[in-house]
Design goal:
By secondary structure, the chain is mainly β. It has strands at 4-6, 12-21, 27-34, 49-53, 60-64. The strands form two sheets. A three-stranded antiparallel beta sheet has the order 1-2-3, with no helix packed on it.
Length: 66
């Protein structure tokens, strides 16, 4: 079951992860939210991160916890 987050507008987003290769050849794991469930969905928020909404669009994003 994918981790889902409902924003203040009532839209539900699901958390996903993906391994990407940057231009310099380094590999990095990214986290992103999507409205549908895709490959790479996560069951929980990764340790050390919290979910916050952007003020302008209400899109959820992960932010490192303090």
């Amino acid at each position: 079951m994918a981790f889902s987050y409902k924003n203040k507008k009532g839209v539900t987003y699901n958390l996903h992860t993906k391994n990407v290769t940057l231009k310099n050849g380094r590999k990095q794991q990214i986290y992103f939210f999507a409205r549908d469930v895709r490959d790479g969905s996560l069951d929980a928020v990764p340790a050390g991160y919290v979910v916050v909404e952007t003020q302008r669009t209400g899109m959820p994003v992960l932010k490192k916890a303090v």
